[in-house]
Amino acid sequence: MPVRTPPTRQRRSAATIHHLDCAPLRPVGGTPLVAHCLLIATGSGLVLVDTGLGAAEVSDPRRLGTLFRRTMRPELDLSRTAVHQVRALGYDPYDVRDIVITHLDQDRAGGLADFPRARVHVMADEYRAAMRRDTRLEGNRYRPAQWAHGVDWVVHDHADSDWMGFPASRVLRAPDILLVPLPGHTRGHSAVAVQEPDRWLLHAGDAYFFHGEIDLRRPRCPRPLALHQRLVADDHDMRLGQLERLRSLCRAHPRLVRIFSSHDPVEFELMANGG
């Protein structure tokens, strides 16, 4: 079923969307980064889009792996964890019913154990990659300890919708939330589309790291970030192709879709302040 424009006024959702930074990063040789997650308060419960790092990583940083700790240098602060921020906003973490994951890298999935009752939605290719860890890169990026507590996985193995011309898998309704596959950064990497009354938000995950990469007039990226993205991509050429698709989406629907990524601090500040 095609999904293109937001619903009419009678069907608009009263969901409240909070933008959270759940893992500030201070990478070697680069500028500070964020871990942009969403908390969506709906009439039937809470939804998280990604989880950042969790309380267990703060207590035992070894769970993240040596390479990630030394290169990305995460700020391990309990107050930054999603579970702490959910409480600080006045919500009960037990009301987090669903978690929608762009991908299962350690800085996206670290907080899963803090919400053990939640259903965790992920694309099938990403689930298989994380469970098998077939390559050295996947062995470094996926940390089985982060889901060893026993996760209620909801694995989406096919697209059942069309969102703005992108194949997508519907996760929830009211508001509409869809997984939009954008493989490249990881084998099963996805964006997450979230309905607002007058537009769509598209959390593009790690499809790009710097806001200038989707600039329609002069696409650009600082060299350290460009190199990092090349090194950690499962398929760098495919990632670049997905980036071009995102630019085309910006060009076609500049007011209907607001795109942002996981790690760009400029985008995070803008969105957190109502941008």
TrEMBL record:
Q: What organism is listed for this UniProt entry?
A: Streptomyces spongiicola
Q: What is this protein called?
A: MBL fold metallo-hydrolase
Where do the Metallo-beta-lactamase domain residues begin and end?
34-263
Give me the segments passing through the membrane.
Answer: none
Its family remark reads:
Belongs to the metallo-beta-lactamase superfamily.
Q: Which GO terms describe its molecular function?
A: hydrolase activity; metal ion binding
For this UniProt record, the keywords arranged alphabetically read as follows: Hydrolase, Metal-binding, Zinc
